Amino acid sequence: MQQSEHQIGVLAAIGAYLLWGVLPLYWKLLEPVSAGEVLAHRVVWSLVVMILILAIRKQLRSGWKELISIFTNLRSAIGIIVASCFITLNWFVFIWAVNSDRVIEASLGYYINPLINVLLAMLFLKERFTRWQAISLVLAFIGVTVMTVYYGVMPWAALILAFSFGMYGLIKKLVNVGAMIGLTIETLLMTPFALLFLVWVHQQPSYEGSFGSMQSATTWLLIGAGAVTAVPLLLFAIGARRISLSLIGFLQYIGPTIMLLLGIFLYNEPFSVVQFIAFVFIWIGLLIFTTSKTTLFKKMTKNLFHKPSEQKQKAC
Hints:
cell membrane
Protein backbone atom coordinates (compact mmCIF):
# COMPACT_ATOMS: atom_id res chain seq x y z
CA MET A 1 0.00 0.00 0.00
CA GLN A 2 2.83 2.37 0.94
CA GLN A 3 4.69 1.54 -2.30
CA SER A 4 1.51 2.24 -4.28
CA GLU A 5 1.10 5.65 -2.60
CA HIS A 6 4.72 6.48 -3.44
CA GLN A 7 4.22 5.53 -7.09
CA ILE A 8 1.09 7.68 -7.29
CA GLY A 9 3.07 10.56 -5.78
CA VAL A 10 5.93 10.20 -8.27
CA LEU A 11 3.57 9.98 -11.26
CA ALA A 12 1.54 12.98 -10.06
CA ALA A 13 4.65 15.13 -9.50
CA ILE A 14 6.11 14.16 -12.89
CA GLY A 15 2.75 14.97 -14.48
CA ALA A 16 2.73 18.40 -12.84
CA TYR A 17 6.26 19.27 -14.01
CA LEU A 18 5.59 17.94 -17.53
CA LEU A 19 2.51 20.16 -17.81
CA TRP A 20 4.41 23.19 -16.46
CA GLY A 21 7.17 22.43 -18.96
CA VAL A 22 4.88 22.39 -22.01
CA LEU A 23 2.86 25.42 -20.84
CA PRO A 24 4.65 27.71 -23.36
CA LEU A 25 2.91 25.73 -26.11
CA TYR A 26 -0.43 26.85 -24.71
CA TRP A 27 0.46 30.53 -24.27
CA LYS A 28 1.95 30.61 -27.78
CA LEU A 29 -1.53 29.80 -29.13
CA LEU A 30 -2.68 33.06 -27.51
CA GLU A 31 0.16 35.13 -28.96
CA PRO A 32 -2.20 37.58 -30.78
CA VAL A 33 -3.83 38.48 -27.44
CA SER A 34 -2.02 40.93 -25.14
CA ALA A 35 -0.25 39.48 -22.09
CA GLY A 36 -2.42 41.63 -19.80
CA GLU A 37 -5.67 40.27 -21.23
CA VAL A 38 -4.41 36.67 -21.09
CA LEU A 39 -3.37 37.20 -17.47
CA ALA A 40 -6.77 38.65 -16.52
CA HIS A 41 -8.58 35.68 -18.04
CA ARG A 42 -6.15 33.30 -16.36
CA VAL A 43 -6.97 34.81 -12.96
CA VAL A 44 -10.76 34.77 -13.47
CA TRP A 45 -11.01 31.27 -14.92
CA SER A 46 -8.52 29.88 -12.41
CA LEU A 47 -10.87 31.01 -9.64
CA VAL A 48 -13.81 29.28 -11.36
CA VAL A 49 -11.87 26.03 -11.77
CA MET A 50 -10.50 26.14 -8.21
CA ILE A 51 -14.01 26.60 -6.76
CA LEU A 52 -15.22 23.64 -8.84
CA ILE A 53 -12.31 21.49 -7.63
CA LEU A 54 -12.91 22.43 -3.99
CA ALA A 55 -16.62 21.65 -4.44
CA ILE A 56 -15.84 18.22 -5.93
CA ARG A 57 -13.36 17.53 -3.10
CA LYS A 58 -15.91 18.81 -0.57
CA GLN A 59 -13.48 21.44 0.70
CA LEU A 60 -15.56 24.57 0.16
CA ARG A 61 -16.50 24.80 3.84
CA SER A 62 -12.94 24.27 5.03
CA GLY A 63 -11.77 26.78 2.43
CA TRP A 64 -14.23 29.37 3.71
CA LYS A 65 -13.07 28.75 7.30
CA GLU A 66 -9.45 29.14 6.25
CA LEU A 67 -10.28 32.39 4.45
CA ILE A 68 -11.92 33.79 7.61
CA SER A 69 -9.01 32.57 9.74
CA ILE A 70 -6.46 34.28 7.47
CA PHE A 71 -8.26 37.62 7.37
CA THR A 72 -8.85 37.76 11.12
CA ASN A 73 -5.07 37.85 11.52
CA LEU A 74 -3.41 41.01 10.19
CA ARG A 75 -0.06 39.33 9.46
CA SER A 76 -1.69 36.44 7.58
CA ALA A 77 -3.97 38.82 5.67
CA ILE A 78 -1.06 40.99 4.52
CA GLY A 79 0.93 37.85 3.66
CA ILE A 80 -1.74 36.31 1.42
CA ILE A 81 -2.36 39.66 -0.31
CA VAL A 82 1.36 40.10 -1.02
CA ALA A 83 1.61 36.45 -2.14
CA SER A 84 -1.24 36.99 -4.61
CA CYS A 85 0.60 40.03 -6.02
CA PHE A 86 3.83 38.06 -6.50
CA ILE A 87 2.15 35.08 -8.21
CA THR A 88 0.22 37.46 -10.48
CA LEU A 89 3.49 39.20 -11.41
CA ASN A 90 5.07 35.80 -12.07
CA TRP A 91 2.20 34.74 -14.35
CA PHE A 92 2.30 38.01 -16.29
CA VAL A 93 6.06 37.95 -16.89
CA PHE A 94 5.94 34.28 -17.93
CA ILE A 95 3.14 34.89 -20.46
CA TRP A 96 4.93 37.99 -21.75
CA ALA A 97 8.28 36.15 -22.03
CA VAL A 98 6.77 33.24 -23.96
CA ASN A 99 4.94 35.51 -26.40
CA SER A 100 8.01 37.73 -26.81
CA ASP A 101 10.17 34.78 -27.96
CA ARG A 102 12.01 34.52 -24.64
CA VAL A 103 11.20 30.91 -23.72
CA ILE A 104 14.90 30.17 -23.09
CA GLU A 105 15.12 33.14 -20.72
CA ALA A 106 11.95 31.94 -18.95
CA SER A 107 13.55 28.51 -18.47
CA LEU A 108 16.62 30.22 -16.98
CA GLY A 109 14.37 31.86 -14.38
CA TYR A 110 13.04 28.52 -13.20
CA TYR A 111 16.51 26.95 -13.20
CA ILE A 112 17.86 29.58 -10.81
CA ASN A 113 14.70 29.71 -8.67
CA PRO A 114 15.84 26.94 -6.22
CA LEU A 115 19.05 28.88 -5.58
CA ILE A 116 17.08 32.09 -5.06
CA ASN A 117 15.00 30.18 -2.51
CA VAL A 118 18.18 29.42 -0.54
CA LEU A 119 19.19 33.10 -0.64
CA LEU A 120 15.75 34.24 0.55
CA ALA A 121 15.77 31.64 3.34
CA MET A 122 19.10 33.02 4.55
CA LEU A 123 17.92 36.65 4.40
CA PHE A 124 14.42 36.26 5.87
CA LEU A 125 14.38 32.96 7.79
CA LYS A 126 17.95 33.29 9.14
CA GLU A 127 18.89 29.90 7.71
CA ARG A 128 22.61 29.32 7.26
CA PHE A 129 24.38 28.46 4.03
CA THR A 130 26.31 25.25 3.79
CA ARG A 131 29.59 25.54 1.91
CA TRP A 132 28.11 23.66 -1.03
CA GLN A 133 25.04 25.90 -1.16
CA ALA A 134 27.36 28.91 -1.24
CA ILE A 135 29.34 27.34 -4.10
CA SER A 136 26.06 26.66 -5.95
CA LEU A 137 25.04 30.30 -5.63
CA VAL A 138 28.45 31.54 -6.81
CA LEU A 139 28.27 29.28 -9.89
CA ALA A 140 24.74 30.49 -10.68
CA PHE A 141 25.89 34.10 -10.24
CA ILE A 142 28.75 33.48 -12.69
CA GLY A 143 26.28 31.99 -15.16
CA VAL A 144 23.90 34.96 -14.93
CA THR A 145 26.87 37.37 -15.20
CA VAL A 146 28.13 35.63 -18.36
CA MET A 147 24.66 35.89 -19.89
CA THR A 148 24.36 39.55 -18.85
CA VAL A 149 27.67 40.41 -20.51
CA TYR A 150 26.60 38.47 -23.62
CA TYR A 151 23.18 40.18 -23.88
CA GLY A 152 24.52 43.56 -22.83
CA VAL A 153 21.57 43.82 -20.42
CA MET A 154 20.42 41.89 -17.39
CA PRO A 155 18.10 38.94 -18.18
CA TRP A 156 15.30 40.75 -16.32
CA ALA A 157 12.51 38.36 -17.25
CA ALA A 158 14.45 35.39 -15.83
CA LEU A 159 15.36 37.24 -12.63
CA ILE A 160 11.80 38.52 -12.07
CA LEU A 161 10.42 35.01 -12.61
CA ALA A 162 12.93 33.54 -10.14
CA PHE A 163 12.50 36.22 -7.46
CA SER A 164 8.70 36.53 -7.75
CA PHE A 165 8.22 32.76 -7.44
CA GLY A 166 10.80 32.62 -4.66
CA MET A 167 9.06 35.40 -2.71
CA TYR A 168 5.71 33.70 -3.34
CA GLY A 169 7.03 30.45 -1.87
CA LEU A 170 8.60 32.25 1.09
CA ILE A 171 5.38 34.08 1.96
CA LYS A 172 3.30 30.91 1.57
CA LYS A 173 5.68 29.21 4.00
CA LEU A 174 5.17 32.01 6.53
CA VAL A 175 1.38 32.19 6.08
CA ASN A 176 1.09 28.36 6.09
CA VAL A 177 -1.93 27.82 3.86
CA GLY A 178 -2.60 24.77 1.69
CA ALA A 179 -1.70 24.92 -2.02
CA MET A 180 -5.23 24.43 -3.37
CA ILE A 181 -7.07 26.67 -0.92
CA GLY A 182 -4.22 29.18 -1.08
CA LEU A 183 -4.51 29.54 -4.86
CA THR A 184 -8.29 29.89 -4.57
CA ILE A 185 -7.91 32.76 -2.11
CA GLU A 186 -5.16 34.41 -4.17
CA THR A 187 -7.18 34.32 -7.39
CA LEU A 188 -10.24 35.51 -5.46
CA LEU A 189 -8.28 38.58 -4.32
CA MET A 190 -7.05 39.35 -7.86
CA THR A 191 -10.34 38.62 -9.69
CA PRO A 192 -11.99 42.06 -9.07
CA PHE A 193 -8.94 43.79 -10.61
CA ALA A 194 -8.88 41.29 -13.48
CA LEU A 195 -12.57 41.86 -14.21
CA LEU A 196 -12.16 45.65 -14.12
CA PHE A 197 -9.23 45.37 -16.52
CA LEU A 198 -11.25 43.16 -18.90
CA VAL A 199 -14.17 45.61 -18.87
CA TRP A 200 -11.74 48.43 -19.69
CA VAL A 201 -10.10 46.40 -22.49
CA HIS A 202 -13.46 45.51 -24.06
CA GLN A 203 -14.45 49.18 -24.14
CA GLN A 204 -11.38 50.23 -26.12
CA PRO A 205 -12.13 51.24 -29.75
CA SER A 206 -9.09 49.24 -30.89
CA TYR A 207 -10.25 46.00 -29.20
CA GLU A 208 -10.40 43.21 -31.78
CA GLY A 209 -12.84 40.96 -29.92
CA SER A 210 -10.50 38.13 -28.92
CA PHE A 211 -13.04 36.94 -26.33
CA GLY A 212 -16.80 36.53 -26.59
CA SER A 213 -17.72 34.34 -29.56
CA MET A 214 -18.32 30.70 -28.59
CA GLN A 215 -17.26 29.75 -32.12
CA SER A 216 -13.86 31.36 -31.53
CA ALA A 217 -10.95 29.06 -30.61
CA THR A 218 -9.33 32.00 -28.80
CA THR A 219 -12.34 32.32 -26.48
CA TRP A 220 -12.06 28.67 -25.46
CA LEU A 221 -8.29 28.95 -25.03
CA LEU A 222 -8.77 31.91 -22.68
CA ILE A 223 -11.38 29.97 -20.69
CA GLY A 224 -9.04 26.96 -20.63
CA ALA A 225 -6.35 29.10 -18.99
CA GLY A 226 -8.02 28.30 -15.68
CA ALA A 227 -7.66 24.55 -16.17
CA VAL A 228 -4.03 24.70 -17.32
CA THR A 229 -3.27 26.66 -14.15
CA ALA A 230 -5.20 24.47 -11.71
CA VAL A 231 -4.55 20.94 -12.99
CA PRO A 232 -0.72 20.94 -12.59
CA LEU A 233 -1.12 22.47 -9.15
CA LEU A 234 -3.57 19.73 -8.15
CA LEU A 235 -1.15 17.06 -9.40
CA PHE A 236 1.71 18.74 -7.52
CA ALA A 237 -0.35 18.84 -4.30
CA ILE A 238 -1.07 15.09 -4.68
CA GLY A 239 2.60 14.34 -5.34
CA ALA A 240 4.08 16.56 -2.64
CA ARG A 241 2.09 14.77 0.08
CA ARG A 242 3.36 11.34 -0.98
CA ILE A 243 7.04 11.74 -1.88
CA SER A 244 10.09 13.23 -0.20
CA LEU A 245 11.21 16.82 -0.58
CA SER A 246 14.54 15.66 -2.01
CA LEU A 247 12.77 13.76 -4.81
CA ILE A 248 10.64 16.84 -5.51
CA GLY A 249 13.95 18.73 -5.75
CA PHE A 250 15.19 16.42 -8.50
CA LEU A 251 11.91 16.39 -10.43
CA GLN A 252 11.49 20.18 -10.44
CA TYR A 253 14.07 20.53 -13.23
CA ILE A 254 11.82 18.68 -15.68
CA GLY A 255 9.81 21.86 -16.34
CA PRO A 256 12.60 24.31 -17.24
CA THR A 257 14.45 21.61 -19.21
CA ILE A 258 11.39 21.10 -21.44
CA MET A 259 11.06 24.89 -21.81
CA LEU A 260 14.71 25.16 -22.82
CA LEU A 261 14.33 22.43 -25.45
CA LEU A 262 11.15 24.05 -26.79
CA GLY A 263 12.91 27.40 -27.06
CA ILE A 264 15.89 25.94 -28.94
CA PHE A 265 14.36 23.28 -31.19
CA LEU A 266 10.71 24.32 -31.70
CA TYR A 267 10.81 28.11 -31.59
CA ASN A 268 14.36 28.41 -32.96
CA GLU A 269 15.40 31.00 -30.40
CA PRO A 270 19.13 31.85 -30.55
CA PHE A 271 21.26 29.71 -28.24
CA SER A 272 24.93 30.48 -28.70
CA VAL A 273 28.05 28.89 -27.20
CA VAL A 274 28.23 31.76 -24.69
CA GLN A 275 24.66 31.07 -23.55
CA PHE A 276 25.47 27.37 -23.30
CA ILE A 277 28.50 28.15 -21.09
CA ALA A 278 26.28 30.32 -18.86
CA PHE A 279 23.75 27.49 -18.53
CA VAL A 280 26.54 24.99 -17.76
CA PHE A 281 27.62 27.08 -14.75
CA ILE A 282 23.99 27.14 -13.56
CA TRP A 283 23.49 23.41 -14.21
CA ILE A 284 26.63 22.50 -12.25
CA GLY A 285 25.47 24.75 -9.42
CA LEU A 286 22.07 23.06 -9.42
CA LEU A 287 23.63 19.58 -9.51
CA ILE A 288 25.78 20.41 -6.48
CA PHE A 289 22.83 22.07 -4.72
CA THR A 290 20.45 19.16 -5.36
CA THR A 291 22.86 16.36 -4.42
CA SER A 292 24.79 18.08 -1.60
CA LYS A 293 22.62 16.56 1.14
CA THR A 294 22.73 13.00 -0.18
CA THR A 295 24.85 10.38 1.60
CA LEU A 296 26.80 9.58 -1.58
CA PHE A 297 27.78 13.22 -2.13
CA LYS A 298 28.85 13.59 1.51
CA LYS A 299 31.04 10.50 1.26
CA MET A 300 32.64 11.72 -1.96
CA THR A 301 33.42 15.20 -0.63
CA LYS A 302 33.93 14.65 3.11
CA ASN A 303 37.69 15.36 3.00
CA LEU A 304 37.59 18.45 0.78
CA PHE A 305 36.98 21.02 3.53
CA HIS A 306 38.31 19.13 6.53
CA LYS A 307 41.58 20.16 8.14
CA PRO A 308 44.17 17.44 8.77
CA SER A 309 43.76 15.82 12.16
CA GLU A 310 46.05 16.82 14.97
CA GLN A 311 47.68 13.41 14.81
CA LYS A 312 48.65 13.87 11.20
CA GLN A 313 49.93 17.36 11.94
CA LYS A 314 52.17 15.98 14.67
CA ALA A 315 53.39 13.22 12.41
CA CYS A 316 54.43 15.85 9.93
